[in-house]
Amino acid sequence: ASGALPLGELRASAVPRLLCFALICVLVGGCSALQVRRPTAAVTGMAVKGVDARGFTMEFDVNVENPNQMALPLAAVDYKLGLAGANVLEGRAKPEGSLPAGGSRHVALPVTLTYENLLAAEQAIVKAGADVPYELDGGLSVDAGNALLGSSRVPLRYSGTLKLREILNDPAVLM
Question: Global pTM?
């Protein structure tokens, strides 16, 4: 005899190995389904709102896309705003709601500037003249909903030019 196992015993000993292999495949597949992919975000524009005696608000429109098959609650937005190359303001906002599963959503990010903020960058603004370049640098954080998956921060960057003459002469913006 060659020492080979009879066919019935070979099949019986292979069953536990096959079950173990199948279980590992299911677990690996399940774990990959738990991986949360980072959403993407893009600032699509900015509008000046509510110029009054205290200052004005720059409202940034942010489009956020969620590639995941589960909704993700919005946690916070942190930002820095620079005018004419000078840091003017740092802040944090708490947007309401969540990102729909496999979908997108627009989020408004209001950044309110007081005239005191502008005085901090007075020399840079005077050098820039009526057209003041600005930069928004920050991030949008989403919460994956549990300690295992944690949260994810999506960078936000946007730049443009504040046309001061147009803003101060637009009656629709002035309050």
Answer: 0.73
Smallest CA-to-CA distance from 75 within 138, 142, 139 is with 142
Residues 125 and 161 sit within 8 Å (Cβ to Cβ): no
How far is residue 17's CA from residue 98's CA, in Å, rounded to a whole number?
A: 44
175 residues of the chain, pLDDT tens digit each: 555 655 555 555 555 564 545 555 444 444 445 577 889 999 999 999 988 888 899 999 999 999 989 899 999 999 999 999 999 999 999 998 999 999 999 999 999 999 898 888 888 888 888 899 999 999 999 887 654 456 788 999 999 999 877 776 665 554 4
Q: How far is CA 106 from the centre of its chain?
A: 11
Dump the DSSP string for 122-172. HHHHHHHTTEEEEEEEEEEEEE-SSTTT-EEEEEEEEEEEEEHHHHHH-TT
The DSSP secondary-structure symbol of 53 reads S
In angstroms, the CA 23 to CA 29 distance is: 10
